[in-house]
Write a structure and sequence with these properties.
It is a single chain. The chain has two domains: 65-246, Rossmann fold (3-Layer(aba) Sandwich); 256-401, Rossmann fold (3-Layer(aba) Sandwich). 28% of the residues lie in helices and 16% in strands. The protein has 13 helices and 17 strands. The chain has helices at residues 10-23, 125-130, 149-156, 171-177, 195-200, 216-220, 223-228, 233-252, 281-288, 308-315, 331-337, 345-349, 375-386; strands at residues 65-70, 73-78, 89-95, 109-112, 117-119, 137-140, 161-162, 181-184, 205-207, 262-265, 268-269, 272-276, 292-293, 303-306, 320-322, 352-354, 400-401. A five-stranded parallel β-sheet has the order 7-6-5-8-9. Strands 13-10-15-16-17 form a five-stranded mixed β-sheet. Helix 8 packs parallel to helix 13. The N and C termini lie far apart (61 Å). 40% of the residues are buried.
């Protein structure tokens, strides 16, 4: 059933207009107003003195968004949607069955709780699952990359539709699904970003920018951003608090370690070696895992673009090497790509690891999907790598050691 009352019947409308003409006086016909309906999640009888959001999010680690509460609506702002962004996004989430506040543009208004959603990033799946709203997911970008078991089940049950992604987004297919919300991400590149096309089509779109956070916990806390659209703040607070507590407990194990092994990350790609900056979430992972990251003093949250020789000079004697390329299966693969890798001490000792323990047949890597929501598991893997004696019972979840 619709959330809003149906328009008056034409015959009744005609009678009203005729009456106005006969009386030769002005007559204003009021538009339909929010009214009670059978949706149990909507307000049945609005009262201005009621706080309709007793459960509120309180941010501790994320810096890219804010939430303010106003009795019957919330204002959610994304202040860093992508690198060097000169624009911000603001969403006005109005409890259904209550008045729409004035002073905002129509495209900013989203009635909540949202009952159907299309998610254009695989990083949104686990948060939706933890908020107990995965049943509201009706569309995703593509099926082949999915590694989340609960989403795979929905695919096999024909409960999801592929809508494409980035430049290949099928807007018409999204419109056919009539979602109340589309969650996506932005890069600032109009050729790649999907949100301009979706907004132009009249859809409600939310930019999820967890990848811009500079800490692992900051990225994971974006579950609270998604929660605001479903009135699931209580669930988000609880689930994130559990992750945060586990993460901090694991990090505490390495605090007083006297020996912190050296580590570097990445590999050469067409003449460029992308190295995480010292203020990136990757560098934070290494610090919390009790390792000495060789580029820790580079004060940038982004990546440095270096050549092979620059990395070679600094990392040749490093004790550990984290390789992120999904297509690298063995140390032999590395040497086949570039024989100069054989000089690295980490490769010679076999201390080369990769976050490719859970990759499906089509190359979908669970590290990049569920890993964002599970920084505690990633940290446990890294501590197991650098200080195995501290995590003797832990079994690798995302990482694996490259075989010869």
């Amino acid at each position: 059933m619709n959330r809003w009352q149906s328009p008056p019947k034409v015959s009744r409308l005609g009678a009203i207009v005729l009456g106005c003409m006969i009386a030769l006086s002005a007559c204003i016909i009021a538009p339909p107003q929010p009214s009670t309906n059978s949706n149990p999640e909507c307000v049945q009888e609005y009262r201005a003195d009621v706080d309709y959001f007793p459960n509120k999010v309180r941010l501790t680690d994320a810096e890219g968004f804010t939430v303010t509460y106003h009795q019957h609506y919330k204002v959610v702002s994304v202040n860093r949607p992508w690198k060097d962004a000169k624009t911000q996004f603001q969403y006005v989430l109005v409890q259904c069955g209550t008045p729409i506040p004035s002073g905002f543009k129509p495209e900013q208004i989203v009635q909540i709780p949202v009952r159907s959603v299309v998610a254009l990033s695989t990083t949104h799946f686990v948060p939706l699952e933890r908020l107990n709203v995965l049943d509201r997911l009706v569309g995703i970008s593509n099926f082949k990359d999915v590694t989340t078991p609960s989403v795979i089940e929905k695919i096999e049950a024909n409960q999801l539709v592929e809508v494409g992604d980035s430049g290949n987004l099928n807007v018409e297919r999204v419109l056919e699904l009539s979602p109340e919300l589309v969650t996506t991400y932005g890069t600032g590149n109009p050729q790649q970003d999907s949100h301009p096309k979706l907004l132009e089509a009249g859809l409600k779109v939310a930019i999820v920018a967890e990848y811009m956070e500079s800490t692992p916990l900051g990225r994971a806390e974006w579950i609270k951003f998604l929660a605001t659209f479903f009135n699931r703040e209580a669930e988000a607070e609880q689930r994130f608090a559990e992750v945060r507590q586990r993460y901090q407990a694991i990090a505490a194990k390495t605090t007083n370690r006297q020996t912190k092994p050296t580590v570097f990350s990445g590999s050469d790609f067409k003449g460029t070696w992308y190295v995480p900056g010292g203020e990136s979430y990757v560098a934070q992972f290494f610090r919390d895992a009790g390792a000495t990251y060789l580029w820790a003093n580079e004060r940038t949250p982004g990546s440095l673009q270096l050549n092979f020789e620059q990395v070679y000079d600094r990392a040749i004697a490093a004790q550990y090497w984290i390789v992120n390329a999904t297509d690298v299966k063995t140390r032999k693969d590395l040497l086949a790509a570039d024989s100069r890798y054989q000089d690295f001490a980490a490769l010679q000792s076999g201390k080369v690891f990769s976050p490719t323990a859970k990759v499906n047949l089509d190359g979908g890597n669970d590290y990049w999907q569920s890993g964002t929501a599970n920084p505690d598991l990633i940290l446990a893997d890294l501590v197991k790598i650098f200080h195995p004696e501290l995590m003797p019972q832990h079994q690798f979840v995302y990482y694996r050691q490259l075989s010869p």
